[in-house]
Amino acid sequence: MYPNLNKIILPSFLFVLVSVNAQSTSQDSIPISLEKVWQKAAVNSKEIKMNQLHSKSGEEAVKNAKSKQLPEIGINANYGKLANIPVFNQGILHHADFIPLENHSIYGATLDSYFDIYNGHKIKTNIQKESVKQELSKYMEEETTLSIHFEVAQAYLKLQLFLEFEKLTKQNIHQNEARLELIRKLYNGGVVLKTDLLRAQLLLSKQKISLTEIRNNADLAMQELNIFMGDPDEQKLKPTDCISFQEQQKIMSYEDYTKIAIDKSPLQKITQQKVTLSKLSIDALKADKLPRIGLFGEYTYSYPQIKLYPYANSPYLLGVVGVKLSYSISSIYHDIHKEEEAKILYEEEKIAQENIQDNLRKEINKSYKHYVEDQEKIEAFQLSVKQATENYRILNQTYFNQLSLITDLLDADTQLLQAQYELISAKIAEQLHYYELLKNTGDL
Questions:
Q1: Which of 144, 159, 171, 353 could lock 221 by a disulfide, CB 3.0 to 4.6 Å apart?
Q2: Angle at 290 (CA atoms; ends 286, 296), nearest 5 degrees
Q3: Beta pairing class for 72-81 and 105-118
Q4: Nearest CA among 115, 171, 184 for reference residue 406
């Protein structure tokens, strides 16, 4: 629209104000606050729903791990037919004698059980691992919720920004249409040159094109919010929140925000759980190298009796209870590289945790400085708007008194609109950086 249109959006705001849009407000627009959008997004967000289901599956995994503490109980049954049994009394190359069988049937049923007394704390370690995974799922859900909240805030603020741009542009177009009509009358009266009329018409045409672009951007931002809320894409929205904070936000020191982030940030908690999980994986591998001791019991009903001598063609019952000791010798050399791998992964997770802390400090510092910077910009841009307004008033008056050029008047008009854009952008950026600060500290 203007030669320096690219300066309208503040550089500090460009990293989030990607081309997004929303519908212009009208009488049937639905008034909605950012808090309300957050509430609806929390219910309808598919990402949050997936994380919630993952957390529920984690609860079941913990219960399943605990169930392994119960005795193992099994039952099996069999039935078959015995073939005649050849006995080679004179060697396999000679004719065999067959043992006569009165009944060729064989059947049996066995009830067995096993209860671990000691297994190197393998079950206990597995329960701890599943519990850590469950906590990890909860923190991932928290992080997803924070991210969705911030994305919603971005879309909401973008909608506010473009609707404010639309309002200012429409006012400017209305003002310029009235000015163009005056210039046309002066031209018809031979007071001004045709170039004045053409320049005024060109500026008005560019402003109308800009208004179309702004409206398209507003429509896209509105669609984005509707998708977050699970509403129809075409639903019109009217933000009700003020584009400026009602009162000065309580701003803490950078060190305080950093401490809060270390304690509350889901990202920090996620990395801590991953470190713990890696340590438990090492413990589980060590448990595999320890002996397993347990109680066992077996109760068998079978036919024929061929387990104990003398044999008998009769059904029998046999019960056995005792203590069982087992030890995997091969685990000594099979798990060497597994343990080394687990130790390396453990060190990797500890470094990843430190890296997350470094990134948190960096992001908090950036948001903190930008937030303070935005407040300073707002004061400067408020003064800029006052100066641009006065400058336009003077040039508008002097032009129609034939004391200034049309280019000076149109430049003043452009500067005033740009100053208004910059002030609104700074106010929106202030809120955005404040929400970003809350997100990084886990408070959004």
A1: 159
A2: 135
A3: antiparallel
A4: 184
Cα three-residue angle 176-180-182, rounded to 5 degrees: 120
- pLDDT given for residue 246 in this prediction: 52
Distance, CA of 273 to CA of 107 (rounded, Å): 53
* Residue 14 lies inside a defined structural domain of this protein: no
Burial (CB count within 10 angstroms: exposed 0-12, middle 13-18, buried 19+), residue 356: buried
Contact call for residues 186 and 192 (beta carbons, < 8 A): yes
Q: Which residue has the tokens 């130790």?
A: 343
Q: Which DSSP symbol is given to 72?
A: E
Return d(Cα 71, Cα 180) in angstroms, integer. Answer: 91
Q: State the residue range of the domain holding 293.
A: 23-441
Query: What pLDDT shows up at residue 1?
Result: 36
Per-residue exposure over 391-415, b if at least 16 CB sit within 10 Å of its own CB, e if not = bbeebbeebbeeebebebbbbbbbb
Residue 372: inside a domain, yes or no?
yes
Tell the residue number behind the tokens 């004179």, with chain if given.
90
What type of residue is 11? P
* Residues 6 or more apart whose Cβ sits within 8 Å of residue 219: 21, 22, 23, 24
pLDDT of residue 206: 93
Task: Indicate whether 2 belongs to any domain.
Answer: no
Structure letter (DSSP) for residue 211: H
- Residue 407's identity, in one-letter code, is T
- Nearest-angstrom CA–CA distance, 340 and 335: 9
* CATH number for the domain harbouring residue 391: 1.20.1600.10
Using CB atoms within 10 Å of the CB of residue 305, give its burial: 0 to 12 exposed, 13 to 18 middle, 19+ buried.
middle
Q: How far is CA 297 from the centre of its chain?
A: 51
- CA 23, 28, 29: angle at the middle one, nearest 5? 45
Which residues, at least 6 apart from 254, have a Cβ–Cβ distance to it below 8 Å?
364, 365, 368
Low-confidence ranges of the chain (pLDDT < 50): 1-27
3-state helix, strand, coil in the chain (%, to 5): 65, 15, 25
> Which residues share a beta bridge with 292?
326
Q: Are 120 and 291 in contact (CB under 8 A)?
A: yes
Residues 54 and 142 sit within 8 Å (Cβ to Cβ): no
Domain count, the chain: 1
Residue 254 lies in a domain: yes
Distance, CA of 231 to CA of 237 (rounded, Å)? 11
Least Cα distance to 410 among 167, 183, 170 occurs for 183
